[in-house]
Structures are given as C-alpha cells and as structure tokens.
C-alpha cells in the first residue's frame, strides 16, 4: 500500500513539473510572438523600436509599450501595441501624449537677480557672529 501511494505521489510530482515546464515554454513562446509582431508593426512608424511587454496580457490580447524615434518628427515617442491572440496580428495605437513637465526646481535667486544684498551666512561657530570674527 505504501509503495503504491509513494509511486502515485512521485508520478503526480513528475507530471506537475512537466506541466509547469510546458506552460513556461508556452509563455516564453507567446512573449516572443508578441514582441516580434509588435516590433514589426512599430517599425512602420518608429525608428529602432523597443518593446516592453505586459507579461500576461488579457484573455484575448497581448500588450506592450513601444518606444522609438518617430520617422516623421524625429522625436522620441511611445505607443501601445495590442496583439490579437486569435489572429496573431499586432496593431500600434496613436502616440501617447508626452508627460507635462513637473514644476522645475527653481533655483533660489541670488542678490544680482533680486537687487537685494545677499543674506549673511550663519555658522555654528560661537566665535563668529553673522560671519564676522569676534575679537
């Protein structure tokens, strides 16, 4: 009885590991297919496209973001690539809007820009007062 149980357990473990390896190979092949199709579709509008894939996608589609330099403007652009699992075809969406610049770090104006004298530098040295040496 123990031998049968042990043999069944070993067979189940082997079958599960083979199933996991097959699924992993299928996932790799799917990502290769999506990347290849997205690169082909993106190369029509982008120079030297690069693809970042959504590793899972959805039930019906594989997805990724393509980056590259647009042929018509010469600027870096990005767009979404959608790969239809049923047909194996990929389509590129319109270029995504560029993010607005966040508030640029403003440099503190110096005395020349404000017309005011510079603020005295404070120090932690007790022998000085407002940057001047005490006698």
Total helical segments: 2
Radius of gyration: 31 Å
Largest sheet: 4 strands, antiparallel
| Strand segment count | 6
Going by helix content, strand content and strand pairing, the class is alpha+beta
- Helix amount: 25-40%
Quaternary structure classification:
single chain
- The side-by-side strand order for the widest beta sheet comes to 1-2-3-4
Q: Name the helix and strand elements from N-terminus to C-terminus, one letter apiece.
A: HEEEEHEE
Tell me the overall shape. Answer: elongated
Low-pLDDT sequence parts? none
> DSSP strand (E) fraction?
25-35%
How far the N terminus sits from the C terminus, by CA atoms, comes to 99 Å
Mean pLDDT, to the nearest integer, reads 77
Written overview of the protein:
The protein is α+β, with helices and mostly antiparallel strands and 135 residues long. The chain is 33% helix and 25% strand. It has two helices and six strands. The protein starts with a helix and ends with a strand. The model has no long low-confidence stretch (mean pLDDT 77).
Layout of helices and strands:
Layout: H1 2-42, E1 46-53, E2 61-70, E3 76-84, E4 90-92, H2 111-114, E5 128-129, E6 132-133
Antiparallel strand pairs: 1-2, 2-3, 3-4, 5-6
Question: How would you describe this structure in keywords?
Answer:
135 residues; two-stranded antiparallel ribbon; alpha+beta; 6 strands; 2 helices; four-stranded antiparallel β-sheet; 25% strand
Short description:
This protein has 135 residues and is α+β, with helices and mostly antiparallel strands. The protein contains two helices and six strands, in the order H-E-E-E-E-H-E-E.
């Amino acid at each position: 009885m123990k031998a049968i149980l042990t043999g069944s357990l070993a067979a189940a473990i082997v079958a599960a590991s083979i199933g996991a390896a097959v699924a992993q190979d299928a996932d790799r092949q799917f990502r290769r297919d999506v990347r290849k199709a997205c690169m082909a579709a993106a190369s029509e509008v982008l120079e030297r496209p690069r693809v970042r894939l959504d590793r899972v996608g959805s039930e019906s589609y594989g997805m990724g973001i393509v980056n590259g330099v647009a042929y018509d403007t010469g600027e870096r652009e990005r767009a979404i690539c959608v790969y239809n699992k049923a047909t194996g075809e990929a389509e590129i969406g319109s270029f995504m809007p560029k993010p607005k610049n966040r508030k640029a770090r403003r440099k503190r104006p110096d005395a020349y820009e404000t017309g005011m004298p510079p603020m005295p530098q404070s120090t932690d040295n007790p022998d000085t007062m407002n940057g001047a040496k005490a006698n």
